[in-house]
């Protein structure tokens, strides 16, 4: 026997048994996005590696350790000197698309949302995958003064989680301030951590110069002890940045969005400025972030777009949301495709008349938008009825010798067990009366 080929580590198959949970989540998300005035955008799952280096920062963990770069056998696909990587996140590709398609000229404010797989070469564990999925939002437009938009994005992230049935999560927010304020924050952090550098893990010792913010969310025990002693506030913020943050908080209060200010929240990506936030769930263990986001006022210009355009966005991790919600509905309750009818055909041995008639009827029903299927094993009545039951169909159509002779079918209501004879020519009309697929 040939050796079997297994799924790559850190990735999942989503089987029909669980796909309804994904589809339900996507449906709810789409409904809410529409309610808040967002439109969907889809970008490629791979991009020029330079896009991520420039936006996330060459020293960020995602770029230094987690980018999955594509290799090609032909120069034609990945030309010499070029490099493509699977996208580790959605913001940079969307900002690239925003600039490329001059969306700034088309509308004042672009309100975009996306679903899709993201890829990071991380060490897999519960809640941490190499291919995972996000639903996210980007609000891109003039950045002059938009604290209300920051509040809207955060409120929407909360509304989505509530809509998905997640309970017990917490919204933490902070402000990094402008580019200059961020430099102040780096200096403050280095100054305060200086005496403790020896006590940090080797990785954080290297981060001290390269990416000091990242030390704040290192999971290492010793690093956490050092970080816990750090008292941080808003000393790095200039007066206008402080005022901006106050306005964001006031807007959150106006919409009744509960939040905690957490000065330790800095996010590891370079592009963030001003507001950053994270939503965590204690039930998820070490990978407790359900989602995160923030404002990025310099990113559009950094990627070659107009100077005065800024953005705000977030992404929620779908696998983690599903973990947080737990089992929830069973397959049958949540099932997305429910059949209207399942056809059972009964022939005398070696004959195929009823089976052929059933096959013909199947096509007719589907053309009339009646969700139908049939049994191809052509076993006993009992085994075919078992298959019908398993399919979840509301009605079973039985075609046997008698039915063929009289040009009728037997229609059985699977919920009530009631059974009656219906002329073939009236069958579709019967379904229009009873079908709940279209109702
Ligand atoms: P981030 O861009 O890292 O803040 O990611 C946003 C959200 O995506 C996180 O809060 C998680 O819910 C989810 N996420 C990020 N990385 C992973 C991963 N490796 N596996 C599963 N979910 C992830």
Summarize the structure.
With 439 residues, the chain is α/β, with parallel strands linked by helices. The protein has 17 helices and 15 strands.
Task: Show the helix and strand layout.
Layout: H1 16-35, E1 39-40, E2 46-48, H2 49-56, H3 61-66, E3 84-86, H4 91-100, H5 103-106, E4 109-119, E5 131-142, H6 147-164, E6 169-175, H7 179-193, H8 202-210, H9 221-229, H10 239-254, E7 260-261, E8 273-281, E9 289-295, H11 299-302, E10 309-317, H12 318-325, H13 331-334, E11 341-345, H14 353-367, E12 372-374, H15 381-391, E13 395-399, H16 401-406, E14 408-413, E15 419-423, H17 427-434
Parallel strand pairs: 1-4, 6-7, 11-12, 11-13
Antiparallel strand pairs: 2-3, 4-5, 5-10, 6-8, 8-9, 9-10, 13-14, 14-15
Helix pairs in contact: 1-6, 6-10
């Amino acid at each position: 026997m040939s050796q079997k080929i297994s799924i790559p580590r850190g990735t999942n198959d989503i089987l029909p048994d669980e796909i309804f949970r994904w589809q339900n989540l996507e449906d709810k998300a789409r409904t809410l996005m529409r309610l808040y005035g967002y439109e969907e955008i889809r970008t490629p799952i791979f991009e020029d590696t330079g896009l991520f280096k420039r936006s996330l920062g060459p020293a960020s963990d995602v770029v230094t350790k987690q980018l999955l770069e594509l290799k090609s056998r032909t120069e034609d696909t990945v030309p010499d000197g070029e490099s493509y990587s699977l996208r580790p996140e959605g913001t940079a590709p969307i900002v690239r698309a925003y600039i490329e398609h001059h969306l700034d000229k088309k509308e004042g404010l672009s309100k975009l949302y996306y679903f899709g797989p993201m890829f990071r070469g991380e060490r897999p564990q519960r809640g941490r995958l190499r291919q995972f999925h996000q639903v996210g939002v980007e609000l891109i437009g003039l950045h002059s003064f938009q604290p209300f938009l920051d509040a809207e994005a955060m409120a929407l992230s909360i509304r989505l989680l509530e809509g998905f049935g997640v309970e017990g999560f917490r919204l933490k927010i902070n402000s990094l301030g402008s580019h200059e304020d961020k430099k102040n924050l780096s200096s403050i952090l280095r100054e305060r951590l200086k005496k403790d550098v020896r006590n940090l893990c080797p990785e954080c010792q290297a981060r001290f110069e390269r990416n000091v913010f990242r030390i704040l969310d290192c999971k290492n025990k010793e690093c956490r002890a050092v970080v816990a002693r750090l008292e941080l506030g808003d000393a790095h913020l200039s007066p206008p940045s402080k005022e901006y943050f106050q306005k964001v908080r006031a807007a959150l209060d106006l919409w009744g969005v509960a939040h905690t200010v957490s000065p330790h929240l800095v996010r590891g990506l370079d592009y963030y400025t001003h507001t950053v936030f994270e939503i965590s769930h204690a039930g998820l263990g070490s990978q407790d972030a359900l989602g995160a986001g923030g404002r990025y006022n310099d990113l559009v210009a950094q990627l070659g777009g107009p100077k005065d355009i800024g953005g705000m966005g977030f992404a929620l991790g779908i696998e983690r949301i599903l973990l947080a919600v737990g089992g929830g509905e069973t397959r049958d309750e949540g099932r997305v495709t429910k059949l209207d009818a399942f056809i059972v055909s009964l022939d005398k041995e070696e004959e195929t008349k009823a089976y052929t008639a059933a096959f013909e009827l199947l096509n007719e029903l589907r053309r009339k938008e009646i969700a139908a299927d049939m049994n191809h094993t052509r076993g006993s009545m009992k085994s075919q009825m078992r298959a019908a039951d398993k399919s979840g169909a509301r009605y079973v159509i039985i075609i046997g010798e008698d039915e063929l002779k009289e040009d009728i079918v037997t229609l059985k209501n699977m919920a009530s067990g009631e059974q009656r004879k219906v002329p073939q020519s009236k069958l579709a009309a019967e379904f229009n009366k009873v079908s709940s697929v279209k109702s």
